[in-house]
Amino acid sequence: MKAVKLFTGTVAAAAVAMMLSACAPTSTQEGTGGYIDDTVITTRVKSQFLGDESLKAREINVETFKGRVQLSGFVSSPQMANHAVEVTRRVPGVKSVVNNMQIK
Length: 104
Fold this sequence. Notes:
The protein is an alpha+beta fold. The protein has three helices and three strands.
């Protein structure tokens, strides 16, 4: 009887441990805190773009995942693309910038 209780307790503990580990974020999925941080970074980058009259903020898309910011969309020159990258790098929380902007 004691062995059955011990076995049942062990199985229950293992099941709980597996359920909890399934809730942990993976490398391709982020938790709520990470999502909020990325949303704040995206908002700050877009705000900087709107405040910079040399950039056409509405033509540049900004996406952030774990501090890595991806810029896409269209700009009129390579200099404008480089400027957008530099503005993005100065935003707090940005770990890296991926430039996928196209020159039109």
